[in-house]
């Protein structure tokens, strides 16, 4: 890493399905901004599953950034429930290497019947509800996860952190 490079701060929204506390929203990433890999033919591929998210703005609280990104990318109105994890995401296959710390924030939908929309078709092709087990199955079947989501899955293994915390605390 050169002296001019800095670690950047990202935020993601783990939006829980209002109708099923075990499901959260993932999107099929098609953006070429980063998290891409170059094939031998120099074709850029970026297809991977991701959470809604992006860069934290200067002066912005982490939870506010997650809510902003969720609304911008999905059209959903969400409320932050709190940060659930932070991942250290180093994109080693990029030139130059990119390094992020990503703050993952649990969010709930304000309107239970709302439907996510693709509002940035140049970045995301579709949104889907998935359980942790469903996401792990996709990964085992060779579907790629965007690095922050892959690291979140690893870091939360054996926990209930990818389940709606409101429901989990009510059951306790």
Automatic annotation (TrEMBL):
Entry keyword set: Hydrolase
SUPFAM superfamilies given in the database record: Nudix (SSF55811)
Entry superkingdom: Eukaryota
Domain Nudix hydrolase: 6-152
A matching Pfam family: NUDIX
The keyword Hydrolase is annotated on this UniProt entry: yes
Signal peptide feature range: none
Record flagged with keyword Endoplasmic reticulum: no
GO annotation terms (biological process): dGTP catabolic process
GO MF terms held by the record: 8-oxo-7,8-dihydrodeoxyguanosine triphosphate pyrophosphatase activity
GO CC term (a single one): cytosol
Family under the similarity heading: Belongs to the Nudix hydrolase family.
Protein name: Nudix hydrolase domain-containing protein
């Amino acid at each position: 890493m050169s002296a001019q490079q800095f670690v950047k701060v990202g935020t993601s929204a783990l939006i829980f399905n209002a109708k099923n506390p075990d499901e959260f929203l993932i999107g099929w990433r098609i953006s070429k901004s980063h998290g891409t890999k170059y094939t031998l033919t120099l074709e850029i591929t970026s297809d991977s599953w991701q959470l809604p998210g992006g860069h934290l703005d200067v002066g912005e609280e982490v939870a506010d950034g997650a809510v902003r990104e969720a609304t911008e990318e999905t059209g959903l109105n969400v409320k932050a429930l709190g940060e659930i994890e932070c991942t250290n995401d180093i994109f080693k296959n990029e030139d130059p290497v990119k390094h992020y710390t990503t703050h993952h924030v649990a969010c709930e939908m304000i309107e239970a019947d709302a439907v996510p929309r693709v509002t940035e078709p140049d970045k995301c092709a579709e949104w889907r509800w998935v359980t942790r087990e469903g996401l792990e199955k996709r990964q085992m079947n060779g579907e790629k996860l965007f690095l922050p989501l892959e690291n979140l899955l690893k870091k939360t293994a054996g926990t209930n952190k990818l389940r709606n915390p409101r429901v989990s605390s009510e059951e306790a």
